[in-house]
Amino acid sequence: MSVEHLDVLIIGAGLSGIGAACHLKRLCADKRFAILEGRQAMGGTWDLFRYPGIRSDSDMYTLGYNFRPWSDPQAIADGPSIRRYIEDTAREQGVDRLIRYQHRVLEANWCSASATWQLRVQRGDEDEPLRMSCRFLMMCTGYYRYEAGYTPAFAGREAYRGTFIHPQSWPQGFDCSGKRVLVIGSGATAVTLVPALAEAGAQVTMLQRSPSYVINLPQRDALSNALRRVLPETWVYRLARGRNVTLQLIFYKLAKRFPGLVRRVLLGLVRRQLGTVDPQHFSPSYKPWDQRVCAVPDGDLFRVLRQGKAQVVTAEIERFTAHGVRLSNGEELEAEVVVSATGLQLQLFGGIAVSVDGVPFEAPKSMGYRGIMLRDLPNLAVVMGYTNASWTLKADLSSEYFCRLIRHMDATGMRQVTPRDGDGQVRPQPFLDLQSGYIERAAHLLPAQGDRVPWKLHQNYLLDLLQLRYGRLEDDYLVFSAEQDEGQAELAQP
Prior knowledge:
The protein has 13 helices and 25 strands. By secondary structure, it is of the alpha/beta class. It folds into 2 domains: 4-146 and 345-492, FAD/NAD(P)-binding domain (3-Layer(bba) Sandwich), CATH 3.50.50.60; 157-340, FAD/NAD(P)-binding domain (3-Layer(bba) Sandwich). Strands 1, 2, 3, 4, 5, 6, 17, 18 and 21 form a 9-stranded mixed sheet that branches. It has a 5-stranded parallel sheet with strand order 7-16-8-9-12. A 3-stranded antiparallel sheet has the order 13-14-15, with no helix packed on it. The longest helix has 25 residues, at 233-257.
């Protein structure tokens, strides 16, 4: 079987994958590359999730790409608008033609003898997987399973006679109007669903085991929309982006340094929005930014609560019944539809079996290098975003850094680069410092971070910008290897 060889393969055609392709085309124009996408459409999260009200809780001036301005008047955008932005970007940059749909990577094995990645790829329903190879692999697969979200093992669920839905698999065309809907959860998905379903005519109850921090943000950026009348779009975008990055960082740093003060401010803002609604439903026991803060544009969640179109119940589920759920306090909530907005199932590499010279790579025993590469894993980037700020801020920088690394290797005649901790002095720490349920459930699947730079995550865009875009590439931990001679490389090919 013939093996197609490319310089770079990008896995995933979502927000990160399209961005990575655009950076490659701009910074490594001589490289041959393709994007492998397991589904039939680009967009990733923003194509997969189709539940009512789907939107970002990050502003588009920071969630948008650093090379393409967001020009829509809405700063906090709905899912279809974000999907169109990704599609338009891919088309304008010409990378849409490089996407190979229904190409699902099954295995990726690093071959040291040839210094290449060897991939087995399932194309559509074909019986025999394709064989492909590349020098560099960019994993833009996100961090969760696309096949199914996380649903707890609810006692008695099999007895429930109504409709049970996970938002990740929302039925197309499903109409909740006039129905009693119970939304289980209090995270970003739940606070999006509740106002959308309520405005569509459903009788909505949000059932939460414990409250989350929720902040009201304006849907539109009035200042940026005003500046568009007198300034070029690029200027407006950069000004808004710089302002919002700074505000996000200040808020995060304040929350970590003065959690009590920030808590009082957040709860005070919530009380002003709630009217007669009990503020205890929005008073978490944890500190701000121990979990991600949920944003609601123009206070739509608070509005439907004040109007009586929705209600919040804080209690634990004892078990499901035929007509709803029974709570631990004995109360029963009846519902014709139950929506389990209970989170995601995390996975690394999009479920791809990764190995080095035939030996399975164990990510939990590894460590992240600059939040981009992994210890002992050659020529591979994991393009992921921030947890305390907009995803794309870090994804853009990660792709730019990897392009710099590729160019540096070309200039120095190197073929392989591998992060190593030669002296074993770097101490492991949890990869993410959030206490969100989906992260805690998957802690055993994730690599560690280190106790020192460059193994330690900054979670700081400005520091990462300086280091990843302008900092030295060579350090004590990156090990470069020269190209094998042609005879050896030829023998090593499968």
